[in-house]
User: What shape does this take?
Amino acid sequence: MKWPGVIRMARDDDGPGIGDLFAACQWNDYGIDWERAKPGGWWLVGERNDQIVGAVQLTVSRPFGWIGNLLVHPSERGRSDLGLAPALGSLAFSLMAIAQGMLLKNGSQVMVGITHDRTWLELLERYGAQSMGAATLTAKRIA
Assistant: This one.
């Protein structure tokens, strides 16, 4: 299932667009100043009609690579042919597949991420991920 928009690495000037996506998804961004965030090289974005409608943060590292903050605009979400609902749709799958490929290409051996969503956990397990057990996600504003 291919998403019909453009998926690309974020540029530093994409901060406000990613911030708008956090707001549209009603996802807490801890008051980030997206004007000065400079996300280039750290995020993949999905773009349609010159608007960022999906994003995933990735950190390429060895041996563990990180994928987090997968966001898809509500207008781009949809059911999946994988039998899991509510699914985020083909944009989410495309972002995850490209991010995983980038980690692999750059030497990561293990992809690490955090989810609290049971649907996503089931999907990730279907594709070979293993739960590392219960965890608490923490964040602290430092700037």
Observations:
- Strands lie at 6-9, 43-48, 51-59, 64-72, 110-112.
- DSSP finds three helices and five strands in the chain.
- The chain has a mean pLDDT of 86.
